[in-house]
């Protein structure tokens, strides 16, 4: 029988993360447990009801925490119910190439500037501000930062034809990153210190631009936009970058390839 689930996620999991939703705190705690081996590959997870009872939370909270892990391929569900820690290597074929099923569901990890450039548009990235300071509670929890550690924040505008298209705030662990290199390319700066992002989780939300964001993007306050929140992880499961981007509603699209299988 599996040890009490509080030992898996940590006795203090609920207190970490400040004002972050409880489901988000549990999701991050589970990611950390998978990354460091407390939840090993193939290990069965208790039922949602059992996890909820063991942690004194609702089943809905448990379900919301597990959903991103399933979408990200870290947790596998079984026919007839139940779930387990996924074996990511099993998604590869015998010659170490992705299977056809996995390939259909895989998207490319690219920067917002790269996505614009791939459309054949000349992209200019402007640095609006660069700050180093203490992380917010959710940032500290996501990036696994301890007391006294700091983050580097980059505020950048990605412009096409001298017209702001995307406003992006990037948050990185300051102790492990070179600020000058990160200003040019956060991805390359991370790769340069052995923290290359191998995967990411994105969340999309329609918003109305506030006064600050609208002013920087040269748009009226309240203009509809797409907010894209991304957390990037190394191959070992460490979160190394948080990105929050505001994208013009008339210049951003999401394309997904769907399959009946």
Distance between the termini: 34 Å
> What would the CATH topology of the largest domain be?
Chorismate lyase
Provide the domain count. 2
Shape: globular
Descriptive report:
The chain has helices spanning 5-9, 22-35, 48-55, 59-71, 100-105, 112-117, 137-143, 179-184, 186-192, 211-216, and strands at residues 44-45, 75-77, 83-85, 123-133, 151-160, 163-173, 199-208, 224-233, 239-248. The protein is of the alpha+beta class and 261 residues long. The strands form two sheets. Strands 4-5-6-9-8-7 form a six-stranded antiparallel β-sheet. The chain is globular. Residues 90-108 have low confidence and may be disordered.
In short:
The protein is an alpha+beta fold. It has helices spanning 5-9, 22-35, 48-55, 59-71, 100-105, 112-117, 137-143, 179-184, 186-192, 211-216, and strands at residues 44-45, 75-77, 83-85, 123-133, 151-160, 163-173, 199-208, 224-233, 239-248. It has two domains: 5-90, Winged helix-like DNA-binding domain superfamily/Winged helix DNA-binding domain (Arc Repressor Mutant, subunit A); 107-248, Chorismate lyase-like (Chorismate lyase, 3-Layer(aba) Sandwich).
Task: Jot down its keywords.
Arc Repressor Mutant, subunit A; 2 domains; six-stranded antiparallel sheet; globular; Chorismate lyase; 261 residues; alpha+beta; three-stranded antiparallel sheet; single chain
């Amino acid at each position: 029988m599996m040890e009490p689930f509080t030992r898996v996620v940590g006795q203090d999991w609920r207190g970490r993360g400040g004002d972050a939703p409880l489901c988000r705190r549990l999701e991050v705690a589970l990611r950390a447990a998978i990354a460091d081996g407390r939840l090993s590959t193939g290990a069965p997870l208790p039922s949602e009801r059992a996890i909820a009872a063991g942690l004194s939370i609702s089943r809905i909270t448990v379900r919301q925490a597990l959903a991103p892990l399933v979408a990200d391929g870290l947790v596998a569900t079984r026919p007839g119910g139940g779930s387990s820690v996924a074996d990511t290597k099993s998604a590869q074929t015998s010659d170490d190439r992705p299977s056809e099923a996995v390939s259909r569901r895989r998207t490319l990890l690219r920067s917002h500037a790269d996505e614009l450039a791939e459309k054949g548009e000349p992209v200019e990235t402007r640095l609006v501000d660069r700050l180093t300071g203490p992380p917010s509670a959710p940032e500290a929890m996501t990036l696994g930062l301890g007391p006294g550690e700091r983050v580097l924040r980059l505020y950048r505008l990605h412009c096409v034809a001298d017209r702001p298209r995307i406003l992006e705030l990037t948050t990185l662990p300051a102790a492990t990153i070179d600020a000058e290199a990160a200003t040019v390319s956060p991805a390359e700066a991370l790769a340069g210190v052995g923290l290359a992002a191998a995967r990411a989780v994105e969340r999309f939300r329609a918003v109305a631009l506030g006064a600050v964001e609208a002013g920087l993007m040269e748009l009226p306050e309240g203009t509809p936009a797409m907010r894209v929140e991304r957390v990037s992880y190394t191959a070992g499961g460490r979160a190394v970058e948080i990105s929050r981007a505001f994208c013009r509603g008339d210049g951003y699209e999401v394309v997904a390839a769907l399959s009946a299988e």
